[in-house]
Amino acid sequence: QQSNVTSSGVTILAIISLEAFAGMWINAFMVGVLCIGWVKKKTLNSNEKILLLLGCSRISFLCFSWVYSFLFIIYPSYLHVHTILQLLVCFQTFFTYSNLWISACLCVFYCIKIANFRNRFFIYLKVKIDRMVPWLLLGSGFLALAIAIVTYELSETVKSNNLNFTCLRNFQEASIRMDKPFFSYFFLIGFGYASSFMAVIFSAVFLLFSLWSHKHKMQTNSMKDLSMEAHIRAMKSVLSFLVLYSINFVCLVLSIIYIMTNNNIVTLFIYIYLYAFPGVHSLILIFSNPKLEKALLKILSCVKCE
């Protein structure tokens, strides 16, 4: 039985390592290209600022996720030291909510920047959005930090072998006590996901309505419309994120359900997706950005020639 447990742990760690390192490379490429452009132009536009911070946040999230997974499977005794457990939980929670809310900020930015409405408030937001982006990113950081601090405090009252705060459970036998800290933690998870999820939904709806309205106005115009192309490009990015985010939200709900019922196999597949999410979404962002896509295709062509 011990050999089976060891083999299962190694398999889980191998899958998580593959997803984590692939996600790190994808986000590192995005950050690297943006930093090179920053050095050359001496400036970054609002879209690039969001993407740069999002890439850094996801690299950090995947690093802490992998470290926790490695310790949890290979050296679980280290996690019985509350200082180590709390620090890992705190940092990973911070970066988890950071990349969720920064992603939501990116969708809101696309919506305000590209959608066309004659509402005075919307026009005001369109004019001021570039100045608002740093404040939105700063607010996302402060909210993530606040939840990370609360989670740090909650981790003192919940043993590491009863509840895993970083979306990885003990896939052996574990007893979960349904106490107040348990519900408090999942309430925080739900709040973080739901708030950013609603921002993404509203952004997608407004963009879709704006695209439909713009297309209706341009039906009699046979010329190529750059605004239409911008709408479509933004819609592809936002809708792809909406689909991934919807699956992510469903996985969150299912993880809560199956943790309560101790269904370890289903929980394993859910968390495998959750670890793959940062890399997959960043890859979509790369192909939806002409600058990043061009750099990636250039690198791939060079590798192919060699």
From TrEMBL:
Quote the Gene3D superfamilies the UniProt record gives.
Answer: Rhodopsin 7-helix transmembrane proteins (1.20.1070.10)
A Gene Ontology CC term for this entry? membrane
Q: Which gene underlies this protein? A: Tas2r9_1
**Similarity field:** Belongs to the G-protein coupled receptor T2R family.
Transmembrane ranges, per UniProt, are: 12-39, 51-78, 84-112, 133-152, 185-213, 234-259, 265-288
InterPro entries for this protein? TAS2R
- Which domain of life does the protein's organism represent? Eukaryota
User: For this protein, what is any one GO molecular function term?
Assistant: bitter taste receptor activity
Membrane topology of this protein? Multi-pass membrane protein
Keywords for the protein's UniProt record, in alphabetical order: G-protein coupled receptor, Membrane, Receptor, Sensory transduction, Taste, Transducer, Transmembrane, Transmembrane helix
What protein is this chain from? Answer: Taste receptor type 2
What CDD domains has UniProt attached to this entry? 7tm_TAS2R (cd13950)
Q: What is its main location?
A: membrane
Q: Does the keyword Membrane apply?
A: yes
